[in-house]
Input
Amino acid sequence: MPGDIVLAARLLFERDGVKKTTLTAVAKEAGITRTLLYYYFEDKDAVVQAVVEDYVEDIVESVATWNEQRVFGNTPDELRKCVATFRHVLYMSSGEPRPMFSVLDELGMRDEFAAKAVREAVDCICRNIVSEYTAYRTVEIDLVPETFALVLYGVVGLMKAKPDITDDEISRLIAQTLRVDMRVLQPPPWSESPRGDGV
Output
């Protein structure tokens, strides 16, 4: 039920704006009574916070899904897929920013959102990918989480400043910045090995 409320609020916030959206409209869109909405959310601020958290979860889930689908040792392809994932999360197929950004701008929360999304995406990358990468290759950078955060902020800024930059170009820039070993590795001969090196 709370998920239905958040989805309804997202739709209305993105279509009509946060200020113009009432909790009555959210309840109606979710197909529930306003009383039931208040059972789950204390007020509009709580609904807004849940929507922002949902946006962050979308980004982290996209990174996690990419991680689960990685192929061991094929760093060049997987890096391109990672860039494509980020582009898809941030931009529509038309190249326009996703509607969530108009909501975040209206709320004055874009920077706060970006910091939280980058922090959680970096946590996911370090927990799942860096540890596997180091099992088969050498990490040649210091301050690994901080460097990944810098790269993610840079990728987002670059996509915004130069929308026509290709995923291949961004992949090359990431590989150079992180000093990623781009050699393709064969899977290890045993079955209970770390799943892949991805980046």
